[in-house]
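Isocitrate lyase/phosphoenolpyruvate mutase family protein
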Amino acid sequence: MTNRTHLNDRALAFRSQHIAGRPLVLPNAWDVASARIVADAGAAAVATTSAGLSWDLGVADGDRLGRDEALDAVARIAAAVDVPVTADIESGYADAARDVAATVRAVLDAGAVGVNIEDAWHGGNAPLRPVQAQAERIAVARATADAEGVALFVNARIDTYLMGVGEPEERLAATLERAAGYLAAGADGIFVPGAVDPVTVEALVAGVDGPLNVMAWPGAPSVSEFAALGVARISVGGGIAQAAHALVRRAARELLTEGTYGSLAGGLEYGELNTLLGNGS
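Structure:
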């Protein structure tokens, strides 16, 4: 079991990095190599992406990965870097709210000090879990971490915008209602992927009584623009993994159809990667 005192110190350090207007920027990783590269690039913390991690393990994203398999991967990532790690645990890898406790204990055993837990209800009878049902899951996560003596940062993800739930004119109010319920249940921050419009983001910052996390992609406001709006955390989800896999496809197609190798230009040097992964040059 990971030393809880050391883990709590790291959790408190991670918590302190969430500052409105001075956002924590997280280039999401999905395996040891990507985590080492992200940390080496200067990231203050490493966030996993459930999509990238699932794809790396040969499974589609969307609550299809098992708890043990997912958190074994998180443990490898956490052991590979010297910065705090926060784990995307999808909806908690548990059907019943009470079973989120086992997931949180496994997260802590893996060495992670934060979690994203989403309200998307894959396989449910609605796109999102009811507010109270999701709040119960967050409360279990909070209580479990507190009982373990770790100030785990619980980032409550709200998928109203990402999934286009409800009428557009009602979406902001519905998101703020969910945010209030999740914060009251013990969440530390609110993550609203899909919302990048400056007017919407500004309204979310004003209406959420806690740090706001947004997900960026090409065409979204820059880090400095999000900072000016009061955002406290910026991540990119599976975006880097998608770009990496797109390169694999381009390179493979070029090699197999044209017989050329231009897509390989600009790759990291063999010796640099070997050194970064601890195998010498």
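The first strand starts at residue 24 and ends at 26.
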